Amino acid sequence: MAEYTLRPNANWNGDNLFTGTGGADYAVLADDTDATYLLRTDLTVPASYEAEFGTQTLSADETITSVNVRARISSLAADSLAQFSIGVITDRNGRAVSYSIPITKQGITAANTFDLGIKLTAAPNGASWTQTLLDNLVVKFTDGATGSSILPPNPTNRTTLYALYVDVVTAPRPTLTVTAPSGTVTNTSFPSVTWTPVFSDGSPQAAYEIKIFDSTTYGGASFSPDTSTPTIGTGIITSTNNGQTLEGDLANSTTYRAYVRVASLINGNNYFSDWAYSQFTLSIDSPATPTVSAFYDSNTGAVTVTIFGRTNTLSANQASFETDTTGWAAVANCSISRSTSQYSSGVASLAVLSGSAGDMTASTTTATKFTVAPNNKFSATAEFKAGATPRACSVGIIWLTSAGAVISTSYGTAENDSTSAWNECNVSATAPATAAYAQVIVKIASAGSSETHYVDKVAFHAGETPVWTRGGFSTFSFVVERSDDSGTTYSAVRNSPVTASASQIATIDDYEVPLDTTVTYRAKARAEI
Amino acid sequence: MAVLSSGYVSTEPIQITNPGIWSFTAIENPELKVRSLRVQQPLNSQIVESYGQFKPLGASKTVIIATSIYGIDGSYEFTTQGETEWDNLYPVLTYQGVLHVHDPLGRQKYVRFVDRTWTEVGPIGNLIRNAKVNYFEVGAP
Description:
The complex is a heterodimer of chains A (529) and B (141).
Chain A: E1 2-6, E2 8-13, E3 18-21, H1 25-30, E4 37-40, E5 47-53, E6 62-75, E7 81-91, E8 96-99, E9 103-106, E10 112-115, H2 131-135, E11 137-143, E12 159-172, E13 175-180, E14 183-185, E15 192-198, E16 207-214, H3 215-218, E17 232-237, E18 243-245, E19 254-266, E20 269-272, E21 276-282, E22 291-297, E23 302-308, H4 316-320, E24 328-332, E25 334-339, E26 349-354, E27 358-364, E28 370-371, E29 377-386, E30 392-400, E31 406-411, E32 415-416, E33 423-430, E34 437-447, E35 452-462, E36 474-483, E37 491-492, E38 498-499, E39 505-510, E40 518-528
Parallel strand pairs in A: 14-21
Antiparallel strand pairs in A: 1-12, 2-5, 3-4, 5-11, 6-10, 6-12, 7-8, 7-9, 7-11, 13-15, 15-18, 16-17, 16-19, 19-20, 19-21, 22-23, 23-39, 24-27, 25-26, 26-35, 27-34, 28-34, 29-33, 29-35, 30-31, 30-32, 30-34, 36-37, 36-38, 36-40
Chain B: E1 3-5, E2 9-10, E3 14-15, E4 23-26, E5 33-35, E6 38-39, E7 44-54, E8 63-81, H1 82-93, E9 99-102, E10 108-121, E11 128-138
Antiparallel strand pairs in B: 4-5, 4-9, 6-8, 7-8, 8-11, 9-10, 10-11
């Protein structure tokens, strides 16, 4: 908070009705001695004198909170009456001035400097204070004495005006540093934006606003955080919080800037800082892109949108063996162990060592069996590498009943692994009508005795088109949106996001689809980790 | 727990041909719906405007000060024959919530039924009922 005191520097009006003793009218009010003063010398009562004031050039980072007047006055009589008001010249050529309501001081018989308590938080014309209005300040002094002794040559109830002061109080513009997100964000699509505000006058934060722009937008030639369209914008939030988790998710592998501004409350209005930003890049092991299909059901009158989440159902360790072999078990003719000598993802893989010549198999454990929906497609994928001798390898799905009994096993096409590169094997199959659970099984056919093969990047998920993503996701849901303008804009379908079933399948019925209009649906998966 | 999102995947564009029927669906409880309902013509509609009328002293004409203009309100007259059709309509007729309406022209809006009356004629086993409901057009829930 800063305070500036302005003093008279010119006569504006009424100087012919008053006489300055010891100098020009305005000048006697600008010194600090009672030896010079201003007195009414005209017979007109009331009579007013108006002085202009020197100005103060404000910086771009401060705003006026109030403008006040102090006056040093005295009189010889108790029936003296002086009035003061602040004015702003709104039309200098037309001599137009807007005034505040006058403040009266009556019967001041001893010289004193009075705070007149005007304290205008807005200019007298109703506008917010500006540099221009400050440059055009006047103070109006009215001698309104009444009674029998108001006339010269020596009226006793005139008010002697010794000095005038205008006190301008300003508040500093808040500043801030956006502290997060920054660098590379690897753990969420909904990063939290945090900042450290600085209110040098001690004001509390009254409001904030966040806008997230992608690199294409903020790199544009005409970019402005005030006017450019953000990827996510919070609007102005009235809050003292210094952070907020974004409510919209951001796209992976994209660089963004989080622009933030904060405000203090000045005279009931937000006084905002400049925008500050923090740049960050989203690089996450995101859930797999789902598959989505839509068809119109004439019986229900709705478009049914079906989404198959293809995110890996395995735990992170089951998928990539970064800790141990927990969640896996040897099934036939082998032992299993974690190997750090070979890996396709992370720093470890599953080593499968044959006990004797013949097929060897290992699978995820029954304790970690995965929920499936009968008659729906599911997929599994795994990568293989030979320790010494390439063999025919395949990945399969063991279908289990709700009681855990094996129904059947669906293997994908067997492919020879290699000692020099990882080879991906896949399987997509329809769950049998009685299936409730599934396990993933890997098979190395016709292995020699004491032969090692490595397995890594194992995944199991709903839908076709197998894909590997890191494991360990949970709480799946899908955002479903519809476009009726060829994909230019999308809006959320009612009941979106929809929670996925345990087998990562969800359907949503859109009863509000426009008829005779070409529409497109899109979906994305959300999951917790 | 952090929340992560995948990228988007889109369907092929699809176009739903207007079946040319009436359908009423309780959009927040879609099990409650009726389709291919017989709605009698003419359809009665009105638009209500919120206004005040002033007759200033000395003025020769009335002054109207309007604020909001509301949606298309009106009434529907349904005809059902037999108990099955009536049983299908009745839960919708008495639903105390927002209904989504598709009309045979492919237009859609959201309505709230507020008054229901009906008549019954014909033999007991094959009653013909004419139900009239007044409704207000409301915003999407």
